[in-house]
Amino acid sequence: MRFIIAKNIFENIISSMQPFLEKKDSSSITSHIYLEVINSKLILKATDYEIGLESYVNDIEESTDGKGTVNGSNLLGIIKRLKNDKIIVETIDNNLVIKQSRSTFKLPMYDANEYPNLIMNTELNILNISTISLVNSIRKITPAIDNNNPKFELNGALIDIKNSKINFVATDTRRLAISHLQNISNNESQFIIPKKAIIEIQKLFLDDAKIAYDDTNLVIETDNSKFFTKLINGKFPDYERIIPNSLKYNLTLPKAMLIDSIKLVTSLFSNIKITFSPNSMVFESLDEDTESKTQIDIDLNISENFYLAVNAKYLLDFLSMSNNENVVVGFNESNLPFYLEDDKFFTIVMPIVLDK
Q1: Residue 133, Cβ density class (10 Å: 0-12 exposed, 13-18 middle, ≥19 buried)
Q2: What sequence ranges are listed for the domain DNA polymerase III beta sliding clamp C-terminal (predicted)?
């Protein structure tokens, strides 16, 4: 195998493949990137068996067909140090050799024939939504996906395809985040995408792509790349029973005012209390050792006082993902879960229970 490629093109692709490599065991072939040249086209693959990426490059010169593997982390370390000029890459004996000007680097290869095959089941169900809609929907719920929960199904996002809409759902047991789209033509189904895959999808896909799935895999494919992830095999909690049927109050509030007030009182401690009265809102820290407090004069059109006690991170996560100047805060009474809504995105938050 031999090819010449621009340094910036090669570096960008090798960088994008780093999250898909086995990091804990550098002796594993899955710590390697697979490279193959076929008919003047370069194919690169990276996978840790759970998630994978395949990329295709036509911008190569003086190519000779062949294949090889190389440790992905070591390869990136070399490429980053080179000048922004063309690079010669070739296999010699059992090494991948990288040359630029008078510099030469050799990295040992594994047997490319032993590299895992990323080809998925071809009988996949097409998910008929735009890529940008998918990315925007999962971006909003990403902060609510749990980390390392013993209930492994919570370490991912549920895609719940219903008759009239598609719900994108995540929970860390303290909050439930849901964004939704209209379902035009997809059959009803459910699957859970791991958090790592959710994060990588947001990095990789900005243009239109073909999205498909079966019982075990999700595949997203463009002209230049193919991404796959194994799905989480589990049953997501019955999230719909958490959604309140009615709310006593729905207050439309300025997002910027909420963000400024919350940040003002959370510089030292993240748990806060917000008191709603007919003509004002008071934000105060729940830190027992210090006092942080601010008041906003605003006509809320309510008849009695209420308060919400909460970890401010949950509020700021929601507000950072909202698109409009105003958001809706809904609640029934103090110490009960409350509701945050912005267009087709809402979050239900468990409060910190305070003695009344």
Answers
A1: middle
A2: 241-344
Range of the domain at 275: 246-349
- Per-residue confidence (pLDDT) for residue 288, from 0 to 100: 86
Contact 307, 315 (CB under 8 A): no
The three-point CA angle 124-128-132 to 5° equals: 115
Q: Are 14 and 6 in contact (CB under 8 A)?
A: no
Note the pLDDT tens digit of each residue in 259-285.
999 999 998 789 999 999 999 999 999
Whether residues 33 and 85 fall in one domain: yes
Pairing of strands 210-213, 217-221: antiparallel
Task: Read off the amino acid at residue 272.
Answer: I
Each residue of 158-178: pLDDT tens digit? 999 999 999 999 999 999 999
For the chain, the maximum distance between any two Cα atoms, rounded to a whole number of angstroms, is 82
Residue 122: pLDDT band with limits 50, 70, 90:
confident
The closest alpha carbon to 171, from 146, 190, 192, belongs to 146
CATH code (residue 344): 3.10.150.10
Query: Which sign, positive or negative, has the C-alpha torsion 276, 277, 280, 284?
Result: negative
Overall domain count for the chain: 3
Q: What are the tens digits of pLDDT across the range 101-114?
A: 999 999 999 999 99
Let me know if residue 78 belongs to a domain: yes
Residue 354 located in a structural domain: no
How is residue 288 annotated by DSSP?
Answer: S
Residue 285 pLDDT: 95
